[in-house]
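Tip: read the tokens left to right.
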């Protein structure tokens, strides 16, 4: 990326251009389709039909998914998923993690405690702790720690029923990106799903941040946990930044909802957007970007762990594929969050021409989430810059 003065930056932060900024195949697909036709989905076109078929084919067969609804953003996708859950269950209760983010509409803002104003707590939403094995209530050194976090979902369900707000759905980003990039073991999701299903609710997997192959070994992050959600949502990464998003689910969940509401999104699934999304799927496959995410991600993760030997402020390193979280602390023994240091590191890296972010409740976790074309050379450059930034700040 380049700024107004022509200075070059290495983007290690943006997940929306999942196959890289300005990928020529995506740009060409958009331009070609725009020259031919762009309309709304009142009119049947090959592109949304093919996209629906390919996305559904990417889901586990046991999910039984046979319906795809197209909208324009991840926020809209989660909004529609919430409407479906309420319609199917006849209930109004939601469960999300304590610092989740699921969108900007009125409904999804209520499901996004990361954005809640101080003192705001919608009555229909229950919070469960993110499965943080580093500083949470259950540590990674405790047997069954992930399952114990999953059991918190059952506790939340019981509390909601006790106050007359039974569960409609739990929304989860399987990587818990906004909670600090936690990427828990499979036991967490399996226990959480068990509790949701026992309560008669739906599980919605929000794949906007960690989907489209970011984990490296799977296309969708929920697959790493071996679970089968009821609804899967995805957002603008599916079009490499062109506005397109989707909701995938089963006919028995969505058909009645669509019949009752006459659901329609004017530009959702328009031919140009679907051409972009199809090109993204082609690039992911043809350029081996899942394998690249696995290989480069492992190199990046190991490299940051190695930096911890020289920098005591590196308290914990976690992640999967090209999604890496680096938790900075003031003292490793107390694990006090080093929020100011994290911001300093972010700004120091920016000054050196590298873009990352911060995440987590204390905003002390460096978020490394580059496009999936990020290579070993770029990873080594970033590691060197991070080493220099930490050394410079600590002098």
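Filled-in amino acids:
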């Amino acid at each position: 990326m380049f700024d107004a003065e022509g200075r070059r930056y290495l983007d290690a932060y943006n997940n929306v251009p999942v196959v890289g900024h300005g990928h020529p195949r995506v740009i060409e697909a958009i331009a070609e389709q725009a020259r031919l036709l762009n309309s709304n989905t009142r009119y049947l076109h090959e592109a949304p039909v093919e996209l629906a078929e390919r996305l559904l084919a990417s889901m586990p067969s046991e999910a039984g998914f046979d319906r795809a609804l197209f909208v324009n953003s991840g926020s809209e996708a989660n909004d529609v998923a919430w409407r479906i859950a309420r319609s199917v269950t006849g209930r109004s209760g939601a469960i999300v993690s304590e610092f989740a983010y699921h969108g900007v509409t009125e409904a999804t803002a209520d499901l996004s405690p990361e954005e809640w104003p101080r003192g705001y707590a919608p009555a229909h939403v229950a919070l469960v702790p993110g499965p943080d094995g580093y500083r949470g209530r259950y540590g990674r050194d405790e047997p069954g720690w992930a399952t114990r976090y999953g059991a918190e979902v059952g506790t939340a369900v019981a509390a909601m029923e006790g106050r007359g707000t039974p569960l409609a759905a739990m929304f989860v980003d399987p990587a818990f990106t906004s909670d600090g990039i936690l990427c828990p073991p499979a036991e967490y999701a399996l226990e959480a799903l068990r509790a949701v299903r026992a309560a008669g609710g739906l599980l919605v997997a929000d794949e906007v941040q960690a989907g489209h192959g970011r984990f490296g070994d799977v296309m969708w992050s929920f697959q790493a946990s071996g679970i089968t959600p009821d609804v899967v949502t995805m957002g603008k990464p599916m079009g490499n930044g062109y506005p397109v998003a989707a909701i995938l689910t089963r006919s028995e969940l969505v058909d009645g909802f669509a019949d009752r509401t006459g659901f329609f999104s004017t530009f959702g699934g328009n031919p140009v957007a679907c051409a972009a999304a199809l090109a993204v799927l082609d690039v992911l496959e043809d350029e081996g970007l899942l394998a690249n995410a696995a290989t480069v991600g492992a190199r990046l993760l190991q490299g940051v762990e190695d930096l911890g030997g020289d920098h005591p402020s590196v308290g914990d390193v976690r992640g999967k594929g090209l999604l890496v979280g680096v938790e900075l602390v003031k003292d490793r023994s107390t694990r006090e969050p080093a929020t100011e240091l994290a911001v300093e590191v972010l700004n120091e890296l920016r000054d050196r021409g590298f873009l990352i972010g911060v995440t987590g409740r204390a905003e002390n976790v460096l978020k490394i989430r580059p496009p999936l074309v990020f290579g070993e050379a770029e990873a080594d450059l970033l590691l060197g810059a991070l080493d220099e930034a930490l050394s410079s700040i600590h002098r």
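The radius of gyration is 21 Å. The mean pLDDT is 97.
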